Amino acid sequence: MQNKFRVMSKKIFLVIFTFLFVINLSKGQTPYDTIDVSLDYIEPLITMPNAFTPNGDGLNDYFYPFIYYNYPIVKYELRIFSINGQQVFYTTDPYARWSGDQPDMATIHNYSKSFVYYLYVQFSNGVSKKLRGSFLLLII
Q: Which domains does the chain have, with CATH numbers?
């Protein structure tokens, strides 16, 4: 008796599957759907380089953050410190870049080629980001 029951359940399943398939085709539906995505709010993405080479070759000559966002920047602050705590660069201009040169940079480079940054960015939608980290100044 169990064998007859198993065979019968498979036939019922096939009938139901075929029936649903015919209904989908008769309504003209497609086997996929669309999703509407609103791009009104995208979380800002900020990446910082971990090294740069200010040697004038046109590649990685400046240190600056890469900011991908959908809203204007309201407040911006970038500070760069030598490894011994001396501030070597400060700006509130989001388009400013540090080229690694200052009058006293020769003495700073002799002691360390590693620097620390602090970045604060606030966007017009109220989102703010704080980043801290370190990077290398490579003299090639």
A: 45-137 (2.60.40)
C-alpha 101/C-alpha 56 separation (Å) is: 12
Q: Could you report the per-residue pLDDT of 84-131, keeping only the tens digit for each?
A: 888 989 999 999 999 887 655 555 555 558 899 999 999 998 899 999
State how far the Cα of 102 lies from the Cα of 83, in Å rounded to an integer.
16
Q: Three-state SS for 40?
A: coil
Which residue in the block uniquely carries the two structure tokens 């980290």? 133
This prediction has a pTM of 0.65
Q: CA-CA distance, 35 to 22, in Å (whole number)?
A: 25
Strand 66-68 relative to strand 45-47, pairing: antiparallel
